[in-house]
Amino acid sequence: MTVFMKLAVGSALLGAWTFPLGQTQKPEPENIWVNASCDETLDGKQVLISIISDGKIVAQKETNLPFASVLFSKVPCEYFIKLEGRGMQTLTKGPYQVIKGESLNTMFAMEPGVGATVVQYGSSPMSREEVATRIKRLEEAVVKLQKGGQ
Predict the structure, then answer these.
(1) What distance lies between CA 89 and its chain's CA centroid?
(2) What pTM did the predictor assign?
(3) Where residue 26 falls among pLDDT bands split at 50, 70, 90?
(4) Which of 23, 36, 91, 121 is the most buried (most CB within 10 A)?
């Protein structure tokens, strides 16, 4: 085996160990477009845009209101988007599902004032513990049915 072949095999093995088990390459990022409108009292004011995943900020940008099409490139995942600034209500919306091969276009209407508004999409948000408990009960019911309902 030549030195070049050894380097190529070594690089391939190292690359396979770099990513999670079963995943050999990093997922391609998808586009998240954030747009915001406002009335004349907020025109020109600075706003901070935060992209949040698993309770952590994964990206931030600052711009002036109103704005159209601020771009974030993120891997497919579930995200919340938060806009905040002085003299305006903080607005958090989500979860948005970023899907492979699709762009996400979001719209925010910023209002003057104080406080925070959360727009949570989905039928009924549950904690991970609630989901785990529900799955466990369903699995127990399936086992019971498989044994003949005893």
Answers:
(1) 22
(2) 0.64
(3) low
(4) 36
